[in-house]
Amino acid sequence: MKRYIFIFFSVPAFLVGLVLLLSFFLISENGLNFVSKFSQDYQIDFEVRDSHWHPYQPSITLNSFVLKNNSNKEVVLEMNDLHLEFDLIGLLIGRPISALHAKNTILYTGNNVDTNTQYSSY
After folding, report:
1. Residues 6+ apart with CB under 8 A from 69
2. Quick count: other Cβ atoms within 10 Å of Cβ 45?
3. Contact between 99 and 84 (Cβ < 8 Å)
4. Distances in Å between the alpha carbon of 11 and those of 73, 85, 92?
5. Tens digit of pLDDT for each residue in 53-84?
6. What pairs with residue 68 in β-bridges?
7. Which of 5, 11, 43, 98 would bridge 68 by S-S if both were Cys, CB 3.0 to 4.6 A apart?
8. CA 50 to CA 116: how far, in whole Å?
9. What whole-number distance in Å separates Cα of residue 101 and Cα of residue 110?
């Protein structure tokens, strides 16, 4: 019986600790640099302006976000004043980003350039 009680309390405590660790990791520049190194097809450059820690809804504001193709070093996506709000509980259902706001978004697609001055998504 003690074993079941231990498991009953330890599993939620482990999950809460994991969510808190992920929350700290997402708003730190070193954590984002670590995550960006996993992409072998694209190079990600960004400049952090501000971050706000919350146990399960952290947010981060970037001055600039540039996505470059590694094969030909061409810029694919460029965003200025990017604000991301994460939802770590939503991560369980596949929606880790609850809101995204960006200004001066430029998407390069082949010979075409799509410019949008403001973008918001919820």
Report:
1. 41, 42, 43, 75, 76
2. 12
3. yes
4. 45, 27, 16
5. 888 888 999 999 898 888 887 888 889 999 99
6. 43, 75
7. 43
8. 23
9. 25
Size of the chain, expressed as the number of residues it contains: 122
Whether residue 58 contacts residue 52, with contact meaning beta carbons closer than 8 Å, is answered with yes
What is the Rg, in whole angstroms, of the alpha carbon atoms belonging to the chain?
18
41 has a pLDDT exceeding 70: yes
Phi, psi (deg, nearest 5) at residue 86: -95, 155
Nearest to 62 by CA among 77, 72, 73: 77
In 3D, which of 63, 120, 54, 61 has the Cα closest to residue 87? 54
Nearest to 84 by CA among 6, 25, 17, 26: 26
pTM for the full predicted model:
0.70
For residue range 89-109, list pLDDT tens digits in order.
887 788 888 898 988 888 887
